[in-house]
């Protein structure tokens, strides 16, 4: 089992920045990748960014490219999502999820953290 806890959400004005954290604990040795997702009211959950623990390869949704950066602190088993130039349309609950090696889906999810961007 892996436990995932997000933090760092809040209220920010358009153009501002926030950094979200995703701390993993438990069977962290089995983690293959971490991903950030978001869900706005009335919308489907969507992919934002992902980080592959072995090798550090990253991927981003088009909406995040150039503005968001995903990174990892190996010592803390924590993945970060640095969000710059935030827009009101970035308002959503942001979720962190973890996928084990060999798994085809994200198995472990955090409780989510609210990000609100005011215009």
Specify the number of helices: 0
The topology string of helices and strands comes to: EEEEEEEEEEE
Structural Rg: 14 Å
- Tell me the strand percentage band: over 45%
Terminal residue distance: 40 Å
Got a strand count? 11
Shape, please?
Answer: globular
Would you tell me the structural class of the helices and strands? mainly beta
Major beta sheet, specifics? 7 strands, mixed
Which stretches are low in confidence, meaning pLDDT under 50 for 5 or more residues running? none
Mean pLDDT: 95
Helical amount: under 10%
Summarize the structure.
With 119 residues, this protein is mostly beta strands. Helix content is 0%, strand content 56%.
What would you say this structure looks like, in words?
This protein is mainly beta and 119 residues long. The chain is built from no helices and eleven strands. Strands 2, 4, 5, 6, 9, 10 and 11 form a seven-stranded mixed beta sheet that branches. A four-stranded antiparallel beta sheet has the order 1-3-8-7, with no helix packed on it. A hairpin with a 7-residue loop joins strand 9 (92-100) and strand 10 (108-109).
Q: Which helices and strands, and how do they pair?
A:
Elements (H helix, E strand, L loop, with lengths): L1 E6 L2 E4 L4 E9 L4 E9 L6 E7 L5 E3 L7 E6 L4 E6 L8 E9 L7 E2 L3 E6 L1
Parallel strand pairs: 2-11
Antiparallel strand pairs: 1-3, 3-8, 4-5, 4-9, 5-6, 7-8, 9-10, 9-11
């Amino acid at each position: 089992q892996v436990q995932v806890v997000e933090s760092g959400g809040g209220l920010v004005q358009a153009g501002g920045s926030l950094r979200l954290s995703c701390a993993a604990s438990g069977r962290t040795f089995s983690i293959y990748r971490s991903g950030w997702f978001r869900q706005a009211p009335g919308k489907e959950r969507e992919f934002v960014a992902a980080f592959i623990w072995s090798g550090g390869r990253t991927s981003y949704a088009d909406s995040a490219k150039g503005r968001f950066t995903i990174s990892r602190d190996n010592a803390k088993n924590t993945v970060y999502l640095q969000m710059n130039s935030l827009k009101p349309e970035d308002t959503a609950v942001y979720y962190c999820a973890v996928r084990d090696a060999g798994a085809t889906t994200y198995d472990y999810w955090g409780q989510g953290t609210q990000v609100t961007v005011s215009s």
